[in-house]
Amino acid sequence: MREWVSRGFLAIATLVVAGVPVPGRADEVSTAKTVGAADSRVSFWLETSLKRIFTNTAPGSADLSLIAARNGKIAFQVGFRNDRLQPVHVECKLEGADDLKPQVRFVGLVPMPHFTPNTPRSDLEGLGSLPGLVPDPLWPLSNVEIGPLESRSFWVTLNVPADAKPGPRAIKVQLGLAEDKAKVELPVTLEISEVVIKPRRDFPVIHWWRGEATWDYYKTGMFEDERWWKLTRDQLKNMLDHGSDVAYMPVFFNRRETFKHPCQLLIVNEPRPGVYEFDWSLVKRFSDMVKEIGFTQFEWSHLWIYWGVEHPMRIYKKEGDNYVMLWDPNISGFSDTYVNFLKQFLPEFKKFLADEKMLETSYFHLSDEPGPGQHVKNYRRARQILREIAPWMKVMDALSNIIRSAHLACNFSEFSPPAISGIR
After folding, report:
1. CA separation (Å) from 107 to 95, 124, 143?
2. Domains detected in the chain
3. What tens digit of pLDDT does each residue of 343-385 get?
4. Stated pTM of the model
5. Strands in 197-307 per DSSP E
């Protein structure tokens, strides 16, 4: 969805979605609780996590029944609509759910300029509301201002302990409308099942993250800045809370472009041409942090830059205050220069992984998305180099449809996750 976002579309999107609320299903009758006269009311209702509340969504039901397994999470929404011509301030709290560690967040909006192409109307959500502003980010706010003639929502997450008592629970959503000094209460019935969710197994999940995006957006320093570490820890903890259990480890910087501030954990020095020294202190600090957060598996940077296995990774060293590449990025990935580097790096990499007890829980990449023809030959050649220098290393790479269909029998990757479009 975010791939279609355009900053310039914001004003247009606001015009599209403002105005008359879009009703729900024909058989739905609103039982929302209201404050104020009919032509200037503020309405409050409850909704599941499965239905998005757009800025023109009509009020729904004032009560909600949910069922949740133990040792799991469940979420629902608290919708509110302001039919007045002035902004109002709404606050949301919960009563009767302290042991469920409730988390209340405000649902933000992002622009969506158009629907996904080649998608049947029957599969589209938001007809009549989109293109426009779509609910997406969850902000850590429980007391907010909303503008006139718009609907918004809070997102409430409940964490059900494994030892929670099965049976029905009565939870009260308490809402305050500051302008009227009014209080509104909405009932939620939560049925806690006897089922206890077991930890997921044999299904590793990863989300790649961009460390340099954090210091660019939040204007922090690089690895020397403790604020960067705090923000990154919070981001990774959020990933873990949403099901990721594999941490991406940027020992190298996995981008083709040249960056002034590359997110490369490994400190590389070159005291003499072609002789390299490796400082693993930042790699260790990062690996200690992700293990403390709760990650149990680790995915490391590619060893050849995408695509085509034609060039080496862009690896940086520091000269004064500047980061410079160890070699011309356009040299061959099979040059003596790069093979010499790998011969020095890979043994130390293995030692670090063994010392940190991460060797058996790590995933390694050669290079993503080789295409047909010369790319396949390059991939085979690079795989042979690794077999000779690092026979202990198994690699995992994303392979496109043409590779999977025509060359899967070549066995140049021990693990080959398919492209989504290749799944049948």
Report:
1. 21, 21, 12
2. 33-114+128-196 (2.60.40.10), 211-411 (no CATH)
3. 999 999 999 999 999 999 999 988 877 777 788 888 889 999 9
4. 0.77
5. 246-249, 267-272, 275-279, 297-302
